Amino acid sequence: MLTVYLACPDVFYPDSKERRDKLLKLCNDNGFIGVYPGDNDIDPPIATTIREANIEMIKNADCILANLSPFRGFEPDSGTAFEVGFATALGKIVVGYSSDTRAMIERLKEYQSLSGEQVTDKDGLLVENFGLPNNLMFGHIVLASTPEEAILRLKSITQSGNR
Questions:
Q1: Which of 82, 67, 12 is nearest to 34 (CA)?
Q2: All domains of the chain, ordered by start, with CATH?
Q3: 15 to each of 11, 19, 39, how far by Cα in Å?
Q4: From first to last of its 163 residues, what are the pLDDT tens digits of the chain?
C-alpha cells in the first residue's frame, strides 16, 4: 500500500485527534497508509526537531494529501504550503483540497470587501487572476473541496499512473 503524508494545519485545532482519526481512516478505507504530522514522538517538542521529523515523513511518503483551506486568515497554513513545495520538489504526487475553491481574486474581493472591477488588494498589490484558488505555484494541485473527494482523486491518479 502507498503511504500518504497528511499535510495539514489540523494539528492546531482543538479536535486534532478526531481530525487525525478521520483522515487516517479515510486513507485506510481507500487502500493507503496515512501518516499524520502530529504522530512524531518528540519529547520535548522542539521546533527544529518537529520540522526535521516531518521532513523525514514527507521523504518516506509516496504521496501527499494537503489541506489548503484558508487558515488564520485568507491563505493556507504556511507550514502546509512549505510541505507541498518540498514534496513537489521531491517529485511526489500531491493532491490538495480546500474548503473554498473559488478563484483567488474572488476570495480576496470578498475577504477585503473590494469593488467588483478592482484587481489590486487593499494595499494596492496586484492580485493573481489565473482562476486558481491559491498562488499559481501550487493552486493547480487543489483538486477537491473535501478530504473525501481529494483521496478519491489521489486514488485515481495513483492507479492510473498519470500525474
A1: 67
A2: 2-100+136-160 (3.40.50.450)
A3: 8, 6, 15
A4: 999 999 999 999 999 999 999 999 999 999 999 999 978 777 777 888 899 999 999 999 999 999 999 999 989 999 999 999 999 999 999 999 999 999 999 999 999 998 878 788 999 998 888 999 999 998 899 999 999 999 999 999 999 876 5
